[in-house]
Amino acid sequence: MSKICLKDKRAAAFIAALCVLSLVLAMPTAVSAQEPSEESPPATDRLLIVKARGVAIQRVENDTVRMPASLELNLTIGPTRRRLGVTPVKDGEGTIEVNETVYTVESARGIILSDGHVAFIKLTGVDETGESITLFIRARYFWMGGQLYVARAIGVLKTGETNMLLLLRVKARLI
């Protein structure tokens, strides 16, 4: 067995100072590594505020009826999976208005493909009478600078027995 002796007191003091310094620097990291509260969403999720206007087209007794349509949504999107170029739409809420009839959106699921600049989103909710509705949207988006995006969207709104085609111009801001 060999003994390790430090003859130089300055070397021992330097090593002790390094140990104390590393403990002092590691302390805030250990304190901040506590689990976040359940109320706040993860830091990687972002909010996408969507506003759209356009027309709803419905076929009624061999006639085509055009009605004004608008859409306001708050979508929660997850982190982008860089290797695949996919951003998931985790949840959402908002309103859809077609010809003065208001539909409430309760949930949203979908994906945003960054390679093709395309988004596919399924919205579910209820109408004024409590019947369930579903809106499927396909949007081709364009970056306008900063956090602003615009899109052209085509959607199908399914309500009870009727289906409506929605053609929308969309403005989306990422927060």
Report on this model:
The chain is mainly β and 175 residues long. 14% of the residues lie in helices and 58% in strands. The longest helix is centred in the first third of the chain and has 24 residues, at 9-32. The N and C termini lie far apart (64 Å).
Q: How many angstroms does the end-to-end distance come to?
A: 64 Å
Sheet with the most strands: spatial strand order: 1-2-3-4-5-6-7-8
Task: Please give the count of helices.
Answer: 1
Structural class: mainly beta
Give average pLDDT, whole number.
86
Kindly state the percentage of residues in helix.
Answer: 10-25%
Question: What is the quaternary state of this protein?
Answer: single chain
Rg, rounded, reads 27 Å
Quick one: biggest sheet?
8 strands, antiparallel, barrel
The general outline is: elongated
CATH topology: Porin
What's the β-strand tally?
8
The low-pLDDT segments are none
Could you state the order of secondary-structure elements as H and E? HEEEEEEEE
Count of separate structural domains: 1
